[in-house]
């Protein structure tokens, strides 16, 4: 059975590029256009990994990570931040919120897939 990964980013083109890479590697993909949209779509189904941007309208990625970690069904779901932010302070905020990894855009698909394979829940 395919593992499900949620991509959360306000850029439709970035979601598309990530989705193509993930689907090509056999994953199922859910998409959210911002943190609030992603939370609405987390309805108890199994999500093996979340990949999220940091800077988004309505709800930023770090706020979303905290909200996801507060949901019992997703408390242990690994979250990767995929963002243009590379400052140490932002990374620490993300880690404190519960993010497992931090990748800086632009990313290359093989690198992303390597991180996904390491972190995706069994």
UniProtKB/TrEMBL annotation:
This is Response regulator. The keyword Phosphoprotein applies. One of its GO terms (biological process) is phosphorelay signal transduction system. The keyword Ribonucleoprotein does not apply. Residues 4-120 form the Response regulatory domain. The modification 4-aspartylphosphate is found at residue 53. It comes from the Bacteria. Keywords: Phosphoprotein. It holds the Pfam family Response_reg.
């Amino acid at each position: 059975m395919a593992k499900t990964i949620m991509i959360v980013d306000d850029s439709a083109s970035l979601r598309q590029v990530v989705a193509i890479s993930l689907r090509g590697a056999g994953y199922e993909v859910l998409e959210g256009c911002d943190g609030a949209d992603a939370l609405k779509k987390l309805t108890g189904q199994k999500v093996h990994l979340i990949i999220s941007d940091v800077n988004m309208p309505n709800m930023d990625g770090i706020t979303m990570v905290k909200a996801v970690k507060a949901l019992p069904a997703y408390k242990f779901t690994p979250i990767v931040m995929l963002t243009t932010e590379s400052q140490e302070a932002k990374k620490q905020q993300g880690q404190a919120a519960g993010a497992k990894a931090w990748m800086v855009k632009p990313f290359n698909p093989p690198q992303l897939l390597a991180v996904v394979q390491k972190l995706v829940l069994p």
